[in-house]
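During the no-cost extension, the postdoctoral fellow (Dr. R.K.) reprocessed legacy sequence entries with the updated structure-token encoder. One reprocessed record is reproduced below for audit purposes.
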Amino acid sequence: MRISHKYKFIFIAIPRTGSFAVREALSPFSQIRGTADNPFYYHMTAAELKTLFARRGWDFGAYFKFSFVRNPWTRLLSQYRVIQKKNYWKFPVRQDYGFSEWCFKSPGEYRRLVCSPAVFFNRHFRRGTDRGHYESQIRHLENLWKDQTHWVFDQNGQSLVDYTGRYENLQEDFDQVCRRIGVSPRRLEHFDIAGEVPSAGRDLEFHQSFNEDLPAHLDLLFKRDMENFGYSPVLQRHS
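Re-encoded structure tokens follow.
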């Protein structure tokens, strides 16, 4: 998340959509930079920011609000690769699952952790661990299985942003954002902690990760993203 009162923009950072690279590029122009702690958490939703702006007497409608989205299934595969690579967030999650098994079983495991925060804290964090850091980790857990619509739309199904770019056209769409907010386009540096394969091979790798039941499962999970952002169902792409 980045906010500039000078340039009047709000960037809504959705996890695994190139948001780290965008945040870094926008930092020189931002007076508020997201952190692991409240009130300005890294991955605040547009609805949360709208509420926070109102509490502070800031005019949410006067700012240019934008975000980036990604094919929801390759985004999920990217998330899986992050956890497989180095257990990046230090969560006690199963790393021996294949992608399909992970998609079916992990949500229940995460829910149990989130619903038992005291047990999670006592088992997996050393004494003296900063409570804010712990709460940030819990929030990351909660975010893993939320669709991208969660960050951009309100509870009434209305989009709260003025522009939604795509990860698949990240640099080109970011250049448009730069022109809109009145700064010179900047080259994005991709910090790819997931170690993803080149884009030309991602679709093939994604489909090779399926079992026969997974496409229907993912189509249901990301139904809102398909409707709101124009991505094709997995069953259609996998047939």
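Residues 18 and 192 are 8 Å apart (CA to CA). Residues 193-200 have pLDDT under 50 and may be disordered. The remaining legacy entries will be reprocessed before the final report is submitted.
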